[in-house]
Design brief:
single chain; alpha/beta; two-stranded antiparallel ribbon
Length: about 250
């Protein structure tokens, strides 16, 4: 059976347009109220800006034949137990008859503080993955196949995110892929290596400028971390669940 990933890339463009419009609306709302958050926090705290991406992923579950599955997106329904910490709130869960099928996380990284935000995103992604994978090994989610784990990051395409950045390590040599790499390149390496190390089954990096509020413009940093590959891998896991039940 052919995999269904929806009307790509039109659906992604609509989601990205919605993302940027939501961020801009949050900033305007804060300004109109006479308040301003430090950095770009007003845009971040304005709601679940990547709901459009979650919508696409949610539709792929019944679209690829797993019609009996339950898709969880509400705040209280996407909390899972951890191993190094009590619980972790994800963005989208897929369950089938008390089995955890898939776990997805959607994040964004925008200016002006690319450096601090990139470090935070890196630490979050790695910490969540290690905690979850250890919980799986320790039987936190019962018996059965290992759940699919996906991570998607949208990074702002801007002069600062494309500019080469120094990576100074005074005692030992910096990994060659990070020398003079931009923040976009750094986050792409993160996504690629998280998959290579088995921390995530799929990790995507969407690169989009603020002008995407008008047309949903986006690009991929590499084929391995493209949004199309991410959706295909997720759809493939869903289809595999259907095939296993036949």
């Amino acid at each position: 059976m052919a995999l269904i990933i929806g009307n790509y890339p039109q659906n992604i463009k609509r989601s990205i347009k919605r993302f940027w419009q939501s961020r801009l609306a949050a900033v305007k709302k804060q300004a109109a109220a006479g308040r301003s958050d430090q950095g770009n926090r007003s845009a971040v705290t304005g709601g679940k800006n990547l709901d459009g991406i979650a919508d696409i992923c949610a539709k792929l579950v019944p679209g690829n034949g797993l019609k009996a599955a339950t898709i969880h997106r509400q705040k209280r329904a996407v909390v899972l137990p951890g191993y190094f910490r009590p619980t972790k709130q994800w963005d989208l869960l897929v369950t089938l008859r008390n089995r955890l099928i898939a776990v997805l996380e959607f994040k964004s990284l925008c200016g002006p503080s690319f450096g601090n935000n990139a470090n935070n995103r890196c630490e979050e992604a790695l910490g969540s993955a290690v905690d979850f994978q250890t919980a799986v090994k320790e039987g936190a989610f019962g018996d059965g196949a290992k759940p699919f784990v996906g991570y998607l990051l949208l990074i702002e395409d801007a002069e600062k995110s494309r500019r080469p950045v120094q990576a100074i390590s005074p005692h030992f040599e910096t990994n060659s892929r990070f020398i003079r790499a931009s923040y976009i390149e750094r986050m792409n390496v993160l996504c690629e290596r998280m998959m290579q190390e088995g921390l995530y089954d799929a990790a995507a990096l969407i690169v989009s400028p603020k002008s995407g509020a008008g047309n949903g413009e986006f690009t991929s940093a590499s084929d391995a971390t493209s949004c199309k590959r991410f959706l295909s891998q997720f759809a493939g896991r869903i289809a595999a669940e259907v095939a296993a039940a036949l």
